[in-house]
Prior knowledge:
Number of strands: 0
Largest sheet: none
Structural class: mainly alpha
CATH superfamily of the largest domain: Winged helix-like DNA-binding domain superfamily/Winged helix DNA-binding domain
CATH topology of the largest domain: Arc Repressor Mutant, subunit A
CATH class of the largest domain: Mainly Alpha
Amino acid sequence: MQPAAIRAGPRSANEDERALIAALRRGEEAAFVELIDRHGASLARLARTFIRDRAVAEEVVQETWLAVLNGIDRFEGRSSLKAWIFQILSNRARTRAVREGRSAPFSAFGGDGADNEAAVDADRFHGEEHRWLGHWAAAPSDFSQLPEERLLGQETLALVYDAIRMLPQRQADVIVLRDVEGWQPDEVCAALGITDGNQRILLHRARSKVRAALERYLAEGPTR
């Protein structure tokens, strides 16, 4: 059963969020259940991009919910409630990943995206000795020609998630929120504390790396 503040007739998204926040501050259990229903699965998916161990990732999600309950009275509404919750999860998961020994430097968690990393391997393009300098030497594969059952098979999807977990953390954050959860760019920027320009750079690099991993897998064929 939904809290009374949420049940009362049609309302805008902002009104709905204000009603939910008010119900949470009153300690209404139904409001907390509503919040978990909305965001629980997404939080778990994002936590797994930081932490491979499912049990540890679930612990981080639980810690996030406790932090939400304990901090809801201090929530100032500078971002959406969803963005605030996911920022808590990102911060806690990042700290836990380091504690659990994930082999990634702190620089991988940075959000500026202003380094010299190429989005696509240089050997995908023709070099100076070629008449078509800078053009594709190995153009991206056309996945639309492949059978749908191959593209959407469990083995293929597992490969995609493994490729995401291998990304630098900020790239993994952005691609999960944009392409898995379907967030808008401004929501991602608010949740992760990055600029729109950095969000676009990180997403482009992440998509390029995941696509490259998918190309290699599809070229080799499924394992038996």
